[in-house]
Design goal:
The complex is a heterodimer of chains A (116) and B (111). Chain A has 116 residues and is mostly beta strands. In chain A, 0% of the residues lie in helices and 55% in strands. In chain A, the strands form two sheets. In chain A, strands 2, 4, 5, 6, 9, 10 and 11 form a seven-stranded mixed β-sheet that branches. A four-stranded antiparallel β-sheet of chain A has the order 1-3-8-7, with no helix packed on it. Chain A starts with a strand and ends with a strand. Chain B is an all-beta fold. In chain B, 0% of the residues lie in helices and 51% in strands.
Chain lengths: 116, 111
């Protein structure tokens, strides 16, 4: 149980375009979802926290107008990278906490974004 | 912040030996800690967790030790196997269920 999926698993886009990444909890309802970014050979850095039906909370230094997060249902959160630039190329990973759990996060497989 | 050219520490062990991976955490108020395993190109996989009211917790082939006095966490893997090769991260659960990840350690298992 506690499976999280992400789509797409990888995406290549041109500079200036927008890319949407989906995060789905497949067998549980996620009241809270988190988005992380991971650069090569580095650790995961939290970008934002989203609660179903409310606005996301962004970490310091993360531009909310560039990284749009929507958590419209208990099983789906989306991250849209707007006007992507090569420096946005990274591995984006989401996680979710279930309705009946207090703190255990289940992670998705990640999405590799490459901006040309 | 993010550093360019950062190299993760590497632990090389012989297959069958025990592995010990260490981690220092930052916040003395953190009360929940987790170890994750990450294989190349994949998301983190939960290994084992421990709460601050415990010093030790055991799972299948893995043991986590928590020393709150020096804010240190360790992961012990018994009889290390080639499939254990991965990057291992510790994470502390901060306020609001935010996870702060450690830098990570590469575990290489030699056959």
């Amino acid at each position: 149980g506690a499976v999280v999926s992400q789509h797409p698993s990888w995406v290549i886009c041109k500079s200036g375009t927008s890319v949407k990444i989906e995060c789905r909890s497949l067998d549980f309802q996620a009241t809270t979802m988190f988005w992380y970014r991971q650069f090569p050979k580095q650790s995961l850095m939290l970008m934002a926290t989203s609660n179903e039906g409310s606005k996301a909370t962004y970490e310091q230094g993360v531009e909310k107008d560039k990284f749009l997060i929507n958590h419209a249902s208990l099983t789906l959160s989306t991250l849209t990278v707007t006007s992507a630039h090569p420096e946005d190329s990274s591995f984006y990973i989401c996680s979710g906490i279930g309705v009946h759990s207090t703190d255990t996060q289940y992670f998705g497989p990640g999405t590799r974004l490459t901006v040309l | 912040g993010e550093s360019v050219g950062l190299h993760l520490p590497t632990l090389s062990v012989q297959e069958g030996d025990n592995s010990i991976i260490n981690c220092a955490y930052s916040n003395s108020a953190s009360d929940y800690f987790i170890w994750y395993k990450q294989e190349s190109g994949k998301g983190p996989q939960f290994i084992i967790d421990i709460r601050s009211n415990m010093d030790k917790r055991q799972g299948q082939r893995v043991t986590v030790l928590l020393n709150k006095t020096v804010k240190h966490l360790s992961l012990q893997i018994a009889a290390t196997q080639p499939g254990d090769s991965a990057v291992y991260f510790c994470a502390e659960n901060m306020w609001g269920n935010k996870l702060v990840f450690g830098a990570g350690t590469i575990l290489r298992v030699k056959s």
